[in-house]
From TrEMBL:
InterPro entries: aa-tRNA-synth_II/BPL/LPL (IPR045864), BPL_LPL_catalytic (IPR004143). Residues 19-200 form the BPL/LPL catalytic domain. Signal peptide: none annotated. It comes from Undibacter mobilis. This is BPL/LPL catalytic domain-containing protein. It holds the Pfam family BPL_LplA_LipB_2.
Length: 253
């Protein structure tokens, strides 16, 4: 799944990001919604457009891709985005920091929720149609903005509480862009299995359980001693991401 169908990149006025080609940065003010904005401008701006919000407490961004597969298969780009997101965080993490996933889209640092990823596409696209575009969006909590003692809820955390340096919001986005290209290149050269294996390695280990990702993005679970294959369906999880608070529209606290 190529990221681009354009030969060049352009930099939006006032951009604070250093992005590799073919990305185009679009910066929103603090109260902007990167995911919604990327969905709105995707038809006009096209592949490689990366929308981000200039704020210090969240790394919030969304990127547009233009797939060459039908939606039912192209939706797996979600996993490439998740892999890139985890790899971006790993590049700034302290040694022995555990960065993993709760399927499908929640990102955990030392088992505490920091945010996650989501995916969107044009409304009305049939499963067997090639979508004009897809948008992968993500939010990562860099700083806790509540007055509550962080230790009171070990299931929720922020990057600063886990030993990450200050001012990481933009650097996470920059690192994501590089790792996203690596993930897409691996997919193109070696098949989706290269992305799937990277993603599955970050799920919690469960003895006697083998996981695979189906061609439509569903998670397949095979348990030792059982012939039947369990299926966790991806589509409903994308519609309502478990990591996202529908009231605050940010990572759950």
């Amino acid at each position: 799944m190529p990221l681009e169908n354009r030969a060049s990149t352009r930099n939006a006025s006032g951009s604070e990001l250093l992005l590799p080609p073919p990305f185009t940065a679009v910066r929103l003010r603090e109260l902007g919604d990167a995911y919604a904005h990327a969905m709105a401008i995707a038809p006009e701006q096209g592949a490689g457009t990366l929308v981000y919000v200039g704020r210090f407490d969240l790394a919030e961004f969304a990127v547009v891709v233009e797939p060459d597969e039908p939606l039912i298969e192209a939706r797996r780009v979600f996993y490439a985005g998740m892999v890139a997101l985890a790899d971006a965080l790993s590049s700034y993490a302290q040694p022995d920091t555990a960065i993993g996933f709760a399927w499908p889209g929640s990102v955990l640092v030392n088992q505490g929720l920091v945010g996650g990823g989501r995916l969107g596409w044009p409304q009305g696209t049939a499963e067997n149609d090639v979508p004009e575009w897809l948008v992968f969006g993500a939010m990562i909590r860099t700083v806790t903005m509540t007055e509550a003692d962080p230790g009171l809820n070990p299931l929720v955390t922020a990057l600063e509480e886990e030993g990450f340096s200050d001012g990481l919001s933009n650097r996470v986005v920059e690192s994501f862009s590089r790792h996203f290209m690596v993930a897409l290149d691996a997919w193109q050269e070696s098949g989706f299995g290269a992305v799937a294996n990277n993603y599955l390695a970050r799920l919690p280990i469960e003895k006697g359980l083998r996981r695979d990702i189906d061609v439509n993005g569903d998670l397949l679970l095979r348990r030792m001693g059982k012939a039947e294959v369990e299926r966790a369906v991806l589509l409903p999880q994308l519609a309502e991401p478990a990591w996202r608070d529908p009231v605050t529209k940010g990572p759950r606290a």
